[in-house]
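Sharing a chain and its predicted structure for anyone who wants a worked example. Both blocks are below, sequence first, tokens second.
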Amino acid sequence: MRTVAIFIFDDVEVLDFTGPFEIFGVAGKQNAGNGYFEVFTVAEKSTIAARNNLIIRPTYTFENCPIPDILLIPGGGGFKSDGTPFGTRREMNNEKLLNWVREMNKKVELLLSVCTGSLILAKTGLLENLSATTHFKAVEQMRQVAPNTELFPEKRWVDNGRIILSAGVSAGIDMSLYVVSKLHGEEAAIETATYIQYDYWK
């Protein structure tokens, strides 16, 4: 059973992380199965206020988080009316986070991002000369932050082998189903999508 760590932060977009949490959480549990993944959250601090003030207590913090097989970085955030960045626009300049992601990247099997989580990966330098996608409203910012990354904003997800990125919000569900299919076969992904009644997945 692989472990999946989902990083969360203040102003994280709720569906960005709960969509993949649901997919990995239920995959392989149909027909009395034991499941393919153990999923948990990790944050820099002990309490997080997601978008629309959803209060979350993460399973782990940076200090005690076990090394996962898969690390997922969601998105969410933007700029306040006074220009102050929040969510990923703030976190993309958080050196403690960037260093933690770089170190985790050396140890994980897969590194995933949803939506503007791509900006965090871009700032780590891990997307250099790779392909990516992101939320359609963040494409120009991605081009500025990662000029040597080839962007495919029309794609729901982009697979570089180890590093896989998805477009905005609901696309994280598609990418997670794709990862299930990549690791456990297409039938496992279809079974998971059918269980959650996600008709978009083909």
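Comments welcome. The CA atoms of residues 24 and 37 lie 6 Å apart.
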